[in-house]
Specification:
154 residues; 23% strand; two-stranded antiparallel ribbon; 2 helices; three-stranded antiparallel β-sheet; alpha+beta
Length: 154
């Protein structure tokens, strides 16, 4: 028969064997319990265990649960949830107002752009009308210069 091994022999290392438990363990879902002693040491959260260190302390929470993807405790207390909901509502209202302001600013910019485009069209029209007159003046000046040159030759 083989010798029974301990988990601590398979997972040696530094850290602590005092942990908080947050997650599903056996037939129970545990939000936060501990610290309890386990048979091996850990240095970072490893589901469902969180090292009982100051870095991962649930102190200050009324009803915490550990958010493993983000590595932080989050509050499940109804009062805190109500406060968070109120803060989210304020944030949403602020974003909604900023969105409305941006839409108004966008509308005003479109109006200014349309005015600039109208001005460009008018300028192009005026230049189109001036071009034939400039061409006639150029011909007239060229003819005058030719006449003066002929007069100087005599």
């Amino acid at each position: 028969m083989t010798e029974t091994k301990k988990l601590a022999d398979l997972i040696p290392g530094d850290g602590t064997n005092l942990v908080y438990i947050s997650g599903h363990l056996g037939d129970q879902n545990i939000d936060c319990d501990g610290p309890v002693e386990i048979g091996f040491k850990i240095t970072k959260p490893t589901w469902p265990y969180i090292p009982a260190t100051s870095e991962y302390s649930p102190e200050g929470f009324k009803n915490p649960v550990f958010d493993f993807p983000n590595g932080t405790w989050i509050e499940q207390d109804e009062d805190s949830q109500g406060q968070k909901l109120a803060e989210l509502t304020k944030d949403f209202e602020k974003i909604e107002k900023e969105n409305k302001d941006l839409k108004e600013e966008n509308r005003m910019l479109k109006e200014v752009l349309q005015q600039v485009q109208k001005g460009q069209i008018q300028t192009t029209g005026v230049l189109g009308e001036l071009l034939p007159a400039v061409q006639q003046l150029s011909k007239f000046a060229s003819n005058l210069q030719k006449q003066e040159t002929k007069g100087d030759e005599k």
